[in-house]
Amino acid sequence: MTKNLKKLFWISLVLFIVGEISLRLYGFCNAPLYFSSKEFEYNTLPNQEGKRFGKNYKFNEFSQRSNSPSKKKKRILGLGDSVINGGVITEQDSLATSILSKNTPFQVLNISAGSWGPDNIAAYLHHYGTFKAQKMILVCSSHDSHDNMDFVPVVGKMSSYPSEQYSLAWIELIDRYLLPRIFGESEANQTIIKAGIEFNSGFDSLLKLSKSKKIPFVIYLHPDSEELKQKKYNEQGIEIMNWANENNVKIIKGLDYPFSSENYRDNIHLNESGQRILAAALKPEVN
Question: Are residues 1 and 112 in the same domain?
Answer without folding.
Answer: no
